[in-house]
Amino acid sequence: MAASSSRVMLGPLVAAIDQGTSSTRFLVFNAKTAELLSHHQVEINQSFPKEGWVEEDPKEILQSVYECMERTCEKLTQLNIDISNIKAIGVTNQRETTLVWDKETGEPLYNAIVWLDLRTQSTAELVRIGKAHHGLVYSKTSCPLCVCVCPLPQCLTGGKSGGVHCTDVTNASRTMLFNIHTLDWDPELCKYFDIPMEILPKVRSSSEIYGLMKSGSLSGIPISGCLGDQSAALVGQMCFQEGQAKNTYGTGCFLLRNTGAKPVMSDHGLLTTVAYKLGRDKPACYALEGSVAIAGAVVRWLKDNLGIIQTSTELEKLAASVGTSYGCYFVPAFSGLYAPYWEPSARGIICGLTQFTNKSHLAFAALEAVCFQTREILDAMNQDSGIPLTQLQVDGGMTSNRLLMQLQADILCIPVVKPSMPETTALGAAMAAGAAEGVSVWSLRPEDLSEVTSEKFEPQINPEGKGHVKHCYLISK
Predict the structure, then answer these.
(1) How many CA atoms, within 13 angstroms, populate the side-chain half-sphere of residue 56?
(2) What's the angle, vertex CA 227, arms to CA 454 and CA 179, rounded to 5?
(3) The dihedral of CA 382, 386, 392, 396: what is its sign?
(4) Which of 7, 193, 268, 380 has its CA 20 to 30 A from that of 340?
C-alpha cells in the first residue's frame, strides 16, 4: 500500500497523443522525471485501392485516439494514479498525410491520403519540368517535388462546434505552401497550387495552449503541444544543440540534424525543415532531414505479403541464425527512393540469390537495407554540414532489434545510442505541452532536463571490414 500511496503523489503529469502511420498511442509522463507511467496503443489499418495508393480511414484514426485515451485513463486509475494530475496534452502526428473535411459538418470528404502515396507523382513531375516554378517552390519550402495537416487539434477541441482550426510550424513546413523563412503560409505558393488560403489552418508555435479537450475523461485539459512526429522525436531526444542528430526507425526512417536558428539548404539531396518553435515568442530552430520510405514497413511486408514471419520479433531471430546475407541484397523501394535520390519511379529489388539463399538470408538483407539507406543519408548530411557526425541517437519501434542496432553501428562506423525509454516521439510532444506558457510544469532549461539512461552500440568492424561495408553500400544504390 505504501507504494500505491506514493504513486498518488506523483505531482504534475503530461500526456501525449502519438498518431503514427501504423498505430495510435496515448502516453502519460511524469513531468518532473520524464518517467512513462502508462500507455495504450491501437493499430491503424491501411488500404491500397490502386497500385501506389495508400489510404487510411480518418474516422478510424480519430476513434483510435479516443480509445487510447480512455484505456490509458483506466490503466492509471487501476494504478491508483489520479488522472486529474494530467495538466496538459501534446499531439504528435504522421506528417504529410493529407485530409480534407467539410467545415460545416466536420465530416471527412475522403480517406486520409498517406505520405507514402504516389498518386500525385504526375503532378509533381509537371511542376519539376517547369524549372522556374520548381525553383520558386524549393527556395521557399525546401520540399522536394515528390509525393510527400494535422486535424487532431480541431477535432479534439470541439470539431464543427467551435474547434480550433490550427497546426504548428513543423507540420505546416511539410505542405509546400509554407514559407520556412517567413514562418507563414505563402500567398505566391498558394496561388500557384490553387489552394484558397482561407481553408488553411492558423499556424501556431509548437508549444502554446491551442484549446481545451471537449469530451471524454480528460475534458477541460489544455492541448498545448503540437509537433510533426520527427520534430517531436528530435525534441524527445533532447537534440537542442546545433549538430546533434537523431534517426527514428518507424514505418520509414527519418534522420534529422539540428542546424540552429538559420536554415541550411542542402546540396546533396536532403531537405531543410523547421525543427521546432517552442513558444510564441521563441525563435524557430531548423534541421536538415533525410528520409527513407521503407524501414519498419519492410517487416510488415515480409509478414503480410510473403508470410515468412508471424511477428516482428521473429525477424531478428531469423537474421541472427545466419549472421550474414551471403550476398543477398534487398532494396525495398516500394514507394520509390527518397533521400538523397528522390526517384519516385524506382521500385524494389532483391538480387544476389542462389540455391543456398533461404528466408533467414532475406531477413538479414532486410535489416541491412535499413542500415545502408541510413548510411547514404548520413553521408549526405556530413557533406552538407562539413562536420562528420560522431554518434547517432536512435529511437522508434525497430530499435528493439539489437542485431539491427549493431549492424547500424558497424555500417556507419560510429556509435549508435539508444535511450532506455524508446518513446521519444511522444516524450517530445509531452515536453512541448508541459513547457507551454500557462501550463509551465515541464522545464526545458538544459540544467533541468532529466538525464536519460541509454545503451550504446559501438562499431565492431575492423578496418578491412570497412571495405566490405562500402561495397554493400554501393550495391544498395
Answers:
(1) 25
(2) 125
(3) negative
(4) 193
Q: What is the mean pLDDT of each run of 10 residues along the chain (477 residues)?
A: 49 94 94 94 93 92 95 96 96 87 85 87 70 60 52 79 88 90 93 89 95 93 95 95 94 93 91 95 95 92 94 93 95 91 91 96 97 96 92 94 96 95 92 97 87 91 50 37
State the Cα–Cα distance between residues 441 and 443, nearest whole angstrom. Answer: 7
Residue 374's identity, in one-letter code, is: T
469 touches 414 (CB < 8 A): no
